[in-house]
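Schema walk-through. Below, the input block comes first and the output block second. Nothing else is stored per chain. Lengths vary across the set, and this one has 389 residues.
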Amino acid sequence: MPSGDVVVVGLGAMGSATLSQLARRGARVIGIDRFVPPHDLGSSHGESRITRQAVAEGDEYVPFVLRSHEIWRELEAETGDSLLLPIGGLLLGRERGTSAEHHGQPDFVRRTIAVARRHRIEHELMDATEIGKRFPQFRLAGDEVGYHEPGAGILRPESCIAAQLGRARAHGATIRTGETVVRVTPGPSDVEVTTDAATYSAAVAVITTGAWLPALLGGPFAKLLRVYRQVLYWFAPEDAPAFTPARFPIFIWIHGDGANEYFYGFPMLSDGIKLATEQFAETVDPDRVPRDVSAAEITAMYERHVRDRLPGVSGRCLRSATCLYTTTPDSRFIIDRHPDAERIIVASPCSGHGFKHSAAIGEAIAELVVTGRSRFDLTPFSLARFARS
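--- output ---
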């Protein structure tokens, strides 16, 4: 039976970061994934992820994203890979405010501004006239307010995961891919992790399996967590130079009061402009996700969000992809010990906004495992909050 100090199950955003940080600290660590990460079947793929420093989801996230930016830069220096592109980010809302929630928070733009002021994050506020002058690619109604953050930008998720797994190996980690974990069994002095190929033993198990977490651990996780299919679209621009990273920011545009009246996007990094929205109406089984994107879905995305707001973007979809969000009832993370097993740490449900924080969360978990405590405040992500509600 292979053994180590820690077994990390699931090597996406959270798992690869945790594995890397544990290995750096000299832990004998084993990482297991049913696929071969980075892969396109979970939540950590699709060419790009938004990162923003003033996090309207809550002040408690800010230390994680700021430290994550430092870790990405450290990884870039070590590997020579390009991971973080701070091209600037724009949040758009209406002057009168909106009641629509984004990641569990209403009035998202104004909440972002408040967080930026409290944490002294560089930003500027813009009205519709200023937005139109700076970014003529947007067709505005005229009553928009904008928050522009120069330090926001793009993370390359596949490259980030590959870099962290590479550094984990360099520091002695053992990585097992193509093995599906079927059981996690805590004991008085260890945890046994059983896959379809072998059984592993360690003092601690860290579970970061995202969409597969509810089925793996059951109990409160099966009751609390929901998995949703999301779709990413790459539309062809009419004027490609206008949508390069030098001229076009990442953006989140909340344009109405309805639950789905927002979308987000990126400049061109490859063969199109990546645009997407989010849906929380239909749950899915992660092993039975419809991966094909229909013509009707493409048309609906373009007609509902894109056509009247990005006139330089055509309706020709060059490619599409699906990814998974695993969400809690309050759209916040869970980073905590299993309520029935102290030797099992759970850090996985990102509720659609986790990648930007993942490098520092991996560090926080490694600190917790190695020293018993972390410099980061993990209290807001405890399971206890659901018992109180």
